[in-house]
Protein 1
Amino acid sequence: MFIGPFTPDTTQTTYKYAPLPHSISYADSSNESFIVAVDGKLSHLRFRASAAPGADKSWTFTIYKNDIATNLAVTIADDATTGEDTIHPISVSAGDRILILSTPSNTPAIAYVSGCMRFTGSGNQSIFGVSSPNPLNNGATEYSNVHGQNTSWDATESLRRQVIGASGTISDLHVRLFQADPGTSPDAYRFTLRKGGASQTLTVTITADDTTGSDTEHSFHVDAGDILTIMCEPLEGPANTPRASFGWCFTADNDNEFPTIAGGDSNMDEAKTKYAQISVCENSMFRWWNTETLACNGNLDAMTVKALYMTLSAAPGAGNKYDFTLRKNSQDTEIAFAISDSDTEGSDTGTVIVEAGDYLALETDPDSLPTEVAALYGFLCETVPEEVPGGSGGPAALLIATGQI
């Protein structure tokens, strides 16, 4: 399955477009998009809202492919708080641009939404990526998180790290520049995926006058708990500073497994119990360490959560700790552990069965006023092969969607 987040953020009266892993929306579809890394199908779109839209009111969420509306759409209306579309799969190809359009009707109530969508590719493939609303730096090397929303590229790599929750192979990097190409040849930007602070062979260079590039030849292996970033290097002093979106493919070592990826530079609260989504982008607004109602992934597809891997940006300090617990439908699960004293890493395994419609959140509970630190984490999940209408059966990857409407 494909775990986002993507964010259908809108006003109560205006339709808005958003890339899938994003918390910023736009009035048209010409801005950055989610870039599909490999061929496959999107299906089983689900949403859950924190409040009903109200009598004779609604929100409709429609998937757009390359600026064209598809039949994959969900409407939440009247007193309902959930909706799903499990009968309109759409085919996607490597390099396709995917957006979601949020359309309100009759001024629905303000609410927060979360949900998910399946990606079914070949074998055990999942797709991930970033859409950035901010420009590249044409004078210095900078780094980004590898999944979700990138609120800004940063010169400090440690602020953009994320943890992957499963073991497998990363491949098929696709990059697209928006609003401008690098400038005049030989102006260029080079994008390189990195593991544990080391550059890998998976890299894309885009030279003026091009705006797209891909590397489908190289790949590298990761283990559950590894830390990922992507590096952007300006070459030959490019004249322009476009924005960039990129997508990449993950193929799990084990059948039916898929990872979540989370992490950012937002610190946990040192004194209060807070919650975050199981898959969250860097600096993801209200979805990062908030109340459980606002920070859960809801109306999920059926799956099993098998493990959690975590790295902290610094140790809690002597005599201090953070307790972490996966919660399902506001109840503790068996996946739980503490990171204390001088430690910065922790993990736990278990079997948490998620039924269609359930919701999940990660709880952090500080003890003895630990040092405020950021958490990078990833879950190992498993999906059950199921026939996708209009396509073949097989493993699917779940995208988890989040946003404010």
Protein 2
Amino acid sequence: MDKSRKILIGFDPSFNNCGIAIRREDGALILHTDDLANVFTWLNERYKPNELLAVVEDPGAINVLFGGWSKMRNAINSKNTAIMKNVFMGSIRAAMNVGSNAAAARLIKDMLRQSLIPVITVSPQDRQRADKTNAPIELLQLPTKTNKKQFKKLTGYTGKSSEHSRDAATLIYNMTPAQFHTKLKIKTA
């Protein structure tokens, strides 16, 4: 294990609203949201690649249309063309958004690996949406879509944040470099 790498970074990928979170060695969180190019500029102005370990949410690991098939079947069974069109267009928009974010994730992973920064990925399907459950936030595994109140309760963070930076932070807020290396070994084994 490379003990010089003690700073964790989490990415919620997007070309226009990329969320990044830094978990410093002392456990403090720093959150930022910007377009992808500016996120990397911001990161490079503050940290050296040999200090960093990265966790990237990878939207390319899901099939967004899978859940849409039952909606489409119901829309077709309704025989209402307006409902069918609405459901179809919604599914297409969701797939396009996932495709764009998957491309951003690929670019982020490539840029990090070119800088020799170790990377692990997390599928959105491995995360639990805070906005879709009544379960206490602290019981969710890799929570996503947290509001400011839930995020503060989970992490203690009270600074400025966006949904994207909070999603990046919940990838790493309670992870240590040792846990990162364990997960990295499992994924590369």
Protein 3
Amino acid sequence: MYLKGTPSNLDKAQKVLATFSTASGAKVNWHKSTAIWASKNARTWQWGTEVGLKWVPNGEGTKYLGVLVGFHLPPEANFDKLMVALKNKLIAWSHNLLSLAGRILVANQVLLASMWYITVCWNPNPRMTAQIKGVIRNFIWGGKDAPARAKVRWETLIQPAAQGGLGIIDPKAQSEAFLAKLMVKGLAPGGEPWKEIIQSKADQIKLLVHSMGPDTTNVNWIFSAPKLKRIPCSMWKSIVGTWMKVRPGLTKTPPTCTAEIFR
């Protein structure tokens, strides 16, 4: 749940969950539940300790759908787990005698694929990206997790085969594509909490499409925003920063009919 952190709101949420539990037969395991206080101001009240709810300290995280989330969570928290998974898969595949084409396929479909789930909402910094590239480069040219001399520059590796490359997916470019797509989805109609966060941070300008029908009155033209508000959270900062980087290279033709808006 995403809600304003006040004792009264939490009391209401507890009552709603109790009603849901009675109606559905499901049970809320409060002793397995965690709460994150996402604010710079210290929390001056206690709530939930009597039912076993645990509050996550600033700088620490809790797993949500396999990803560590938290307030002021260091980027290394998810990166370390990602690198362990990447190297474990590399070690498992290093025992196979694969051709260059086979190693390229494994790199794209197995090794790099293991990081897309996390990078959908997180952008690795340059140091992390360099480490990921190093692991992939070593596997491509040496077949194992050991330093190997690259025969071709990385910029050539990530080019399509038709352009003289090997078709390796660039982890940085792929991550930026995911985050830019998330930004676009966040500004689409909908009342999901994560969309409300993005929409509250974006200087949106309403697109004048009222004549196209009642369903288009809340449409926003994201290219009209001259800038985006400053965001202290590292996760949202990476999403917004990526969007600002990708946006200039995209086509900025406004929709002209309702079908184009909802396409």
